[in-house]
Amino acid sequence: MRVVRRIALAVEAVVPSERTYLLSLGSQQGNAHLHWHVAPLPPGTPYEQQQYHALMTENGVIPWSAQQAVELADRLRTALSVVGDDR
After folding, report:
1. What global pTM score does this model have?
2. What is the pLDDT of residues 23-42, one digit of tens each?
3. pLDDT digits (tens, 9 = 90+) for 46-55
4. In terms of CATH architecture, what is 2-83?
5. For the stretch 43-79, what's the b/e string if a residue is b when 16 or more beta carbons lie within 10 angstroms of its beta carbon?
6. Which residues contact 12 (CB under 8 A, 6 or more apart)?
7. What does the DSSP assignment read for 20-73?
8. What whole-number percentage of the chain has pLDDT above 90?
9. Residue 61 to residues 3, 5, 29, 37, 42: CA-CA distances in angstroms?
10. Which one, of 26, 78, 20, lies nearest residue 54 by Cα?
C-alpha cells in the first residue's frame, strides 16, 4: 500500500485530476494475483460520468501517442523521486 500511495501521489502531482481512483483487481478463480490500477479522473468530468462510468473503456478512452506515454513516464519518475518513501 505504501508503494501504491507513492505512485498515486506522483500521478496526482503530474496529471491534472479531479480525483484519483485506486482499484485492486485479481481473482483466485482465474489466475491468482493482485494488481492495482491508479486512474486519475480528468477535471471537469460531469458527475454522471464519474465512478464506474469513467473506468469502463466502452465509454471511451483518452487517446495517447507513444511519445506522450514516454513523456508521462519521465514526469512520473521525477515526481517519484520527490514524493519519497514514507516508511
Report:
1. 0.77
2. 887 777 777 777 888 989 98
3. 999 888 888 8
4. 2-Layer Sandwich (3.30)
5. eeeeeeeeeeebeeeeeeeeeeeeeeeeeeeeebeeb
6. 20, 40
7. EEEEEE--SSSS---EEEEEEEPTT--GGGSTHHHH-GGG------HHHHHHHH
8. 51
9. 26, 24, 28, 15, 11
10. 20
Question: Identity (one letter) of the amino acid at 71?
Answer: E
Residue 71 scores a pLDDT above 80? yes
Phi-psi region of 50 (alpha: psi -120 to 50; beta: other; left: phi over 0): beta
> What is the pLDDT, as a whole number, of residue 34?
79
